[in-house]
Amino acid sequence: MSSAEVLGAVLEGICGHVTPIRVIKGGQEFEVGGPEAWGRAARVRVNRALRSVGAVAPHVKLEPDTQVHAWGSSLDLAIAVAAASCRGLVLGDIRRTAFVGELSMDGKILPTPGTLSMAVAVADAGCERLYVATGVAAGVAGVGVEAALESRLTVIPVSSFGDLLEAINGAPTVLAHPAESPTVPAFAPSFLGDPVALRAVEVAAVGGHGILLIGPHGVGKTVLGRILRDLLPPPFPDEALEITMIHSACGLLLDRPGLVAHRPFRAPHHTCSTAALVGGGTPLRPGEVTLAHNGVLLLDEVTEFTSASLEAVAAALADGEVVHSRHDRRVVFPSSAQLVATATACPCGRLGSVDLGKTCMCSRDSIARHQARIDRLREFLPITAHVRASTHSNTEYSISAGRDRVASARAIRAERIGSDGWYVSTADPDWVGDERAHRIARTIADLEGSATVTERHHAEAISILNGPHR
């Protein structure tokens, strides 16, 4: 055969793209187009894989007009199959079949991030079969199981290029099946905390409002942020698939396959870069706001983040997506996450502490500057809760009971607006106080099962909006 065409797939952002690979005979050695460094490495890997099955290095090259949407090692397998087909090593039918995987120097097939996204793209393109790496981890088929979440495909995991050729040519194969979704237990069955702050967290969970938790070190602000995720209902099937695709693109499913059936929780450190928060780099990768999509993003000690980082996060959450433009393409990452932030009332973090040895020594000017920075955060964090350090009024809070109340209130809201999917109430800086208060009051009424918003609901909303213990 003088030429061959095989379907491969690549990952761009969190989306997969099917790429036809056309190979023709000619030239002095096997040549691969694309970026110079990538082409040089792919040529070596493919030649080694062909030698591992006893084939002479083919005198073939990638056709100059081959259109590759984005280059990556996931194309290795498709290029090698096309080259093998030119040498007469492929006897089976490879129509409506795609190949995804990286080749090692000894012919082994290695897993690549984003296999699920590429499997979805392959199915959308009308293919029926997909060959992927076995990727054995913890005794189960890793990436093979991940790709099998796409039910429209027959997914065949293989461990080496030799096994792949045998499978194509009719050898018995073992089909991949989806793994069970990993379970994530609640942070704690119950929590002893400030009842006013816990009430604010419940309101935030019902309405999808951003919340700012203020208090001295050690009063449980971070724990309250984690509890909010536990109060949220599990994702719907389409949301779970989207979450899984994002985690797959970041390579987070290689050792724990299966549908991610829980809402994500991300808590980046304040020293991380803006690119780490909203995505970027080479190759282009999602950031923390995208990893928190359909879940909760916690910015602990939010005043320690740079202004540029906070503005980038606020813009990403307000738009619901992050757009990255390169010279030849445009990549969009989803970023619909509920924001939780924690802060101290002063730079040293001791203001409001009841411990005798932790007296605040900050000057009035430094406290005023700190408070001014916090006030700017209220533009996109409508709910403010001051977490008290005293334990005299703290109550035992049941996570399961709180989750039931939140689920009931969200069901009331869904019936009222005609939508039951994931939603985040993004705060518009142009909203006046009355509009913000009314939205929160409406959420409180839903939480109490009330069809109408009363003056008491408005009073509580104003208290939550301004922070009751400020």
Summarize the structure.
The chain has 470 residues and is of the alpha/beta class. It is built from 15 helices and 19 strands.
What does it look like?
- By secondary structure, the chain is an alpha/beta fold.
- It has 2 domains: 166 residues, Ribosomal Protein S5, domain 2 (2-Layer Sandwich); 277 residues, P-loop containing nucleotide triphosphate hydrolases (Rossmann fold, 3-Layer(aba) Sandwich), CATH 3.40.50.
- The protein is 36% helix and 18% strand.
- It is built from 15 helices and 19 strands.
- The longest helix has 19 residues.
- It is elongated, with a radius of gyration of 27 Å.
- The N and C termini lie far apart (78 Å).
List keywords for this structure.
single chain; alpha/beta; 2 domains; five-stranded parallel beta sheet
